[in-house]
Description:
Elements: E1 2-6, H1 14-27, E2 35-44, E3 54-62, E4 68-74, H2 77-104
Parallel strand pairs: 1-2
Antiparallel strand pairs: 2-3, 3-4
Amino acid sequence: MNITFNNKQGKLGKTAVANVADKIGAVFSKFEADIVSVEVCVKDVNGPRGGVDKRCRLLIRLRRMKDVVASVQEDSVSRAISRAVRRAERAIKRKVQRRGMRNLGRKPALGFAVYSD
């Protein structure tokens, strides 16, 4: 699983990036076979004016499924990241479960018969 950060505004320091990468790795480790990459974008939407303006957007690319995007706007960066990770985790869990449900009723393409003499 490849994790990339888009931190052009410098809202995350080196230790914060490491902590976020660890958190994402821990939360998404159970879906590691399905996840190709994770892109984290943290942005201050409103600039220096304050308010609820820190946005975290997670783009998760999945194998053989559509991408998952979780975007959250909060008053602090850490809270925005936490909520975005939780939303993305729920969305991935639903997609993986639905994919499993879809495959339950299928019959194999080739049937094999066992003959005995």
